[in-house]
Amino acid sequence: MDGPQVKALAHRLSVAVWGHRVDRIDVPVDRWQANVLLKHCAGHHVLRIYSHGCWLIWNFEHGVSWLCYPVRRWSWEILKVGGAFIREPMVWAADPTGVAARPRRRPLIRSQLDDGREIVLSGRPLFLTLLTPDLWRHPHLADLGPDPLAQELSVADWRFRLRLSEKPTIARALLDQRVLAGIGNPWKCVILYATGVHPATRAIALNSRQIQQLAAAAQICLTRAYQHYLGDVQEGRLCAVYDRAGEPCPTCGTAITVDRCGRDGHWTWYCPKCQCPDSQALLFDTW
Fold first, then answer.
1. What CATH number did the domain enclosing 129 receive?
2. How many domains does the chain contain in total?
3. Residue 103 confidence (pLDDT) above 50
4. Among 79, 110, 76, residue whose Cα is nearest residue 91
5. Residue-by-residue DSSP string for 76-141
6. Which of 150, 162, 170, 272 has an alpha carbon 20 to 30 Å from 177's alpha carbon atom?
7. Rounded Cα–Cα distance for residues 231 and 43 (Å)
8. What are 152-165's pLDDT values in tens digits?
9. Domain check: are 128 and 230 in the same one?
């Protein structure tokens, strides 16, 4: 799961829940021990639901926040009175080209709103309950970089952030959440393909023109991905190279290559011709 998916999920939940009071919260006692702060959210209104990178954040009126991170597959479901689905479960898969069906898991949290609807969290996420003033001092959030979907970053910001990364290649630096929060592996591949940058290029070796193109491509890519997950953009071919090893490049016809750029276990799909050191930026002409 990546930033655009979580941001789209936050938007949908916010539209459904914002301003409502949570009347009841049920947590399975055989899965989690009772959490006092979690239980104390019952009877309070939700002020805000938003995301930062891959973190989903709920703010309540009495100064308590929920943090949820998709370590494993999860789903958020909105149920109307009587338990019927208002819409299909909001289940996000790692593959941005589609959502694969999975068997429903037992609920981890079932929250009943003041209008009778229920918000149900299932799956295996990392879930934290914190006091809102302490939110950004928590170790999981304190080291996060800026979210490109939440704020506009200048070329100077990008240059500064990339130099902060301890990862040698640009492919690994883009996935470093301390540099930029929310870029997942599929969109890393799309961004590099759109700018014509080889994934093994050293991050500190990028010139100003390449960084400018990288910043512009990331903004376009992540925004379009977010609109796609909201349903505002038809699926089409969002990923020209991701998970297409051996298929012809949409631009030059060269077979797409897949390789690892480091020891972090993430594969990178790219075109060896369009993304050679002397290539020019494609700027999403093949989208």
1. 3.20.190.10
2. 2
3. no
4. 76
5. EEEE-TTS-BSSS-EE--S-TT-----PPPPEEEEEEETTS-EEEEEE--EEEEEEGGGGGGSHHH
6. 272
7. 33
8. 888 889 989 888 88
9. no
